[in-house]
Amino acid sequence: MLAAARQAVLVATVPLPYQPLRQALDERTNVEARMCFYLSGLFTAAEEIQHHLDAGVPVVVESYFARCLTTHRALGARLGVTLPSWLPTPATYHLVCDDDERQRRLAERNKPVSRWDSLIETVTDRATDAYASFPMHRVDTTGRSPDEVLRVIMDTETQGAHPHADSEPVGAHPHVLPAVPRHAPGTCRP
Predict the structure, then answer these.
(1) Phi-psi region for residue 23, left (φ > 0), alpha (ψ -120 to 50) or beta?
(2) Which tens digit of pLDDT belongs to each residue from 72-83?
(3) Which residues contact 168 (CB under 8 A, 6 or more apart)?
(4) What is the pLDDT of residues 16-39, one digit of tens each?
(5) How far, in Å, CA of 74 to CA of 115, rounded?
(6) How far is CA 173 from CA 13, 128, 186, in A?
(7) Do the Cβ atoms of 75 and 120 come closer than 8 Å?
(8) How far apart are alpha carbons 171 and 132 in whole angstroms?
(9) Which residues pair with 87 in a beta bridge?
(10) Angle formed at CA 173 by CA 76 and CA 44, multiple of 5 degrees
(11) Which helix (H) or strand (E) holds 2?
């Protein structure tokens, strides 16, 4: 919805070629290996993002470096990561809601719950604390429809940003829920 509203391209931060390995890796228990995999996907996506931006095309992503780093740190990863200065730096929105509504939304999701999904639910306070180190717009979605949330995001000032280029520091994380796999155009979704 945000990509359509901003007339932007939606870039998957776990690129399509990564998807089969993503499923296999998510069955494993090594949090550092998982973190490195997701970082690799993000760096690959960052090249695509920069290509679009260089062509003057705005970009929306569902997840970015802040989500990867905070989630894996909350899950116990101890790798030190310094992000390079060349990364595209989006305006970021951290969508939150009260716990009762969050639990209801999780229960209504139509996707299998992985081991990692279950683990992150045991450390939500650590993940929330880790997000505080990344600049982002916090948007309370409690009791709001997706259309209402979109309006809040669209009305949020991005402090001097060009209308087609968001310029806040790295830290995208639209929600704490796992990323939705993307499919190649023309393929059917199960």
Answers:
(1) alpha
(2) 999 999 999 999
(3) 89, 90, 91, 92, 135, 136, 158, 159, 161
(4) 999 889 888 888 999 999 999 999
(5) 14
(6) 11, 11, 28
(7) yes
(8) 10
(9) none
(10) 85
(11) helix 2-5
Tokens 């880790």 belong to 130
**Spans in the chain with pLDDT lower than 70:** 157-190
pLDDT at 56: 95
Count of residues making up the chain: 190
DSSP sequence for 117-140: HHHHHT-HHHHHHHHTTS--EEEE
In whole angstroms, what is the distance from residue 15 CA to residue 18 CA?
5
Q: Which tokens in the block code for residue 178?
A: 């796992």
CA 38 – CA 168 distance, rounded (Å):
22
Cα within 13 Å of Cα(132), Cβ side: 8
Q: Is 24 exposed, middle or buried (0-12, 13-18, 19+ CB in 10 A)?
A: exposed
In the prediction, which pLDDT does 36 show? 96
DSSP string, 43-76: HHHHHHHHHHHHTT--EEES--HHHHHHHHHHTT
What pTM did the predictor assign? 0.75
